[in-house]
Amino acid sequence: MPLAHVYIGPGRSHAVKQQLIDNVTKAIKDAMGPLQQPVWVVINEVPLNQWGVDGVPVSAAKR
């Protein structure tokens, strides 16, 4: 079963997350062709103070 983990910052609406799930599912099906099993998509909402880019916390870089 294809499984996609998507990490995003918090604050997106249910509708936006639903569209994200739909788009990721379609992309996997387009790339892999017909599948025997369903595509799973897991959205992980991570607070921005728990993200870092190139050694710098995102929360500090936004200041």
Question: What would your notes on this structure say?
Answer:
It is a single chain. With 63 residues, the chain is of the alpha+beta class. The chain has a single domain, classed as 2-Layer Sandwich (Macrophage Migration Inhibitory Factor). Helix content is 37%, strand content 25%. It contains two helices and four strands, in the order βαβββα. The protein has helices spanning 14-32, 58-61, and strands at residues 3-8, 40-45, 52-53, 56-57. A two-stranded parallel sheet has the order 1-2. A two-stranded antiparallel sheet has the order 3-4. A hairpin with a 2-residue loop joins strand 3 (52-53) and strand 4 (56-57). The longest helix has 19 residues, at 14-32. The model has no long low-confidence stretch (mean pLDDT 92).
Residue-averaged pLDDT = 92
- Domain tally: 1
Structural class by helix and strand composition: alpha+beta
Q: Could you tell me the strand content as a percent range? A: 25-35%
Largest beta-sheet details:
2 strands, parallel
CATH superfamily: Macrophage Migration Inhibitory Factor
Q: Please give the count of helices.
A: 2
Shape from CA axes? elongated
What proportion of the residues is helical, as a percent range? Answer: 25-40%
CATH architecture: 2-Layer Sandwich
Side-by-side strand order of the widest sheet = 1-2
The name CATH uses for the topology is Macrophage Migration Inhibitory Factor
CATH domain class: Alpha Beta
Give unreliable regions as ranges. Answer: none
- Taking Cα atoms only, what radius of gyration do you get, to the nearest Å? 15 Å
Distance between the termini: 41 Å
